[in-house]
Amino acid sequence: MGVRRALVSVHDKTGIVEFVKRLVATGYTIVSTGGTASTLAEAGIEVVPVESVTEAPEILDGRVKTLHPRIHGGILARGDQDESELATNGIERFDLVVCNLYRFRETWADPASSESDIIEMIDIGGPAMVRAAAKNHHYVGVVVSPSQYDVVAAAIESGGLDDDLRRRLASDAFFHTASYDAAIVDWLGRDLVIALREVGELRYGENPHQEAVVYREEGAPAWWAEGAQLQGKEMSFNNYADTDAAWWLVADLGESSAVVVKHTNPAGAARGGTVVEALEKAWEGDPLAAFGGVIAINGIIDRETAEAIAARFVEVVVARDVADDARVVLASRKSMRVLVAPLPVRQGLDYRRIEGGLLVQERDAVEVDGWEVVSERAPSTDEMAALRFAWVVAAHAKSNAIVIAKGEQAVGIGAGDQSRVGAAERAVVKAGGRADGGVAASDAFFPFRDGLDTLAAAAVTAVVAPGGSRNDQEVIDAANEQGLALVFTKRRHFRH
């Protein structure tokens, strides 16, 4: 195998002692720095301190220790062609570099961190070593994550790193430094570099003729990556998009809620005293549209709920957990995808691809307070509770959107319409007679009174909308004429 000399300098020391012991057992000499050297020495591993290689002390509180020709020359040396120059300068080769970087993202995210704390987490020597080793990957292996330790150690124990593994390690190393620099760019200014790690191929894209891949943004929470798929076919592009839409909505609706989503729009949504009650009410919202949809449940699926799900045609089910006896029931629907996952976290930015660039915005957040009653009649307590429920659902439906609710059950959803009155008409048709005595939410203001008149004609008793139209008074007058309670939120929730 030739040279067996490793440079080890890690900030995350998870598993490093066990990994280095396996290297030493194959004949490796270990050169290490600072805290890493101390950790290894305390574990009884013989270590060559980096300053004995450089013949120069660490300076500036350890900020300069590996930036030296005897380190980088040993990493960047190629085959036999640099042998003479190495000998002239007293440089020994490294064939393995084990290095991960300071916790910049975590320090930045900590509210207790000062600017100087964050700056101190901008690593210099680490990225230099990682990039050097990755550039010279034909001759040097580079390891940047504890998750790689077992694979690398096993390969060395079996005779060495092959070309394919070296290339994969180099790719991971450059991604490691690129995502690290992306976080620094984000912190320093308004430019944005997004580091995306490939997670895997999908069954297909929006249509079967389109290939598709799912990527995870480095450092960002991802319920779908942190959860698990218990059963069913592989996820497609549309499965992920619909499930994400359903999971965000059910998270905003709260405990013991259920939603059914088709084409990223809610087909039904409800809260109930039990999970199965919420599911039944959500499905009843629009049984025709719910067929073949995605079910999301903010709670634990028990056996009774599982039996209700298994009796229907469903593409995907996602919940916080599934009881053991419920898993047995769901297993009868072999093709149905069943996921368990943590609820999504409203963190980070929202991206929309356009030709040659991205539209970037902060994530929308739904609020149900600070509202103003603008009609002569104020909503009753029950009406206000139903309005808050309908408002949350409307915020998750594509614009233009109108949601009619009866209590905590959506009974008519008009979404994605080109006109506000059209959305109201569709919601009324979906609701049928159930609109009588119900309430309605509009995701943006009524530009004219016709939308409100449509809801009033269906016997809706209370409406919530953002307000803000130059015709607000016309809409308020319409509400008063027909005895409706009208509430303005002063905030809209367009969703395109």
What keywords describe this structure?
6-stranded mixed beta sheet, Rossmann fold, 496 residues, Cytidine Deaminase, domain 2, 21% strand, alpha/beta
What does this structure look like?
The two termini are 58 Å apart. The chain has a six-stranded mixed beta sheet with strand order 8-13-12-11-9-10. Strands 16-21-20-19-17-18 form a six-stranded mixed beta sheet, sandwiched between helices. A five-stranded parallel beta sheet has the order 3-2-1-4-5, sandwiched between helices. Strand 11, helix 15 and strand 12 form a beta-alpha-beta unit. The chain has 496 residues and is an alpha/beta fold. The protein has three domains: 184 residues, Methylglyoxal synthase-like domain (Rossmann fold), CATH 3.40.50.1380; 112 residues, Cytidine Deaminase, domain 2 (3-Layer(aba) Sandwich); 117 residues, 3-Layer(aba) Sandwich (Cytidine Deaminase, domain 2), CATH 3.40.140.20. It contains 20 helices and 21 strands. Helix 1 packs parallel to helix 9, helix 13 runs parallel beside helix 15 and helix 18 runs parallel beside helix 19.
How many discrete structural domains? Answer: 3
CATH H-tier superfamily of the largest domain: Methylglyoxal synthase-like domain
Integer average pLDDT: 94
Catalogue the unreliable spans.
Answer: none
Largest sheet report: 6 strands, mixed
Query: Helical element count?
Result: 20
Fill in the CATH topology of the largest domain. Rossmann fold
Beta content:
15-25%
CATH class term of the largest domain:
Alpha Beta
Give me the secondary-structure category: alpha/beta
User: What is the correct CATH architecture of the largest domain?
Assistant: 3-Layer(aba) Sandwich
Radius of gyration: 30 Å
Instruction: Tell me the overall shape.
Output: elongated
Span between termini: 58 Å
Strand order of the largest sheet: 8-13-12-11-9-10
Helix percent reads 25-40%
Strands, count: 21
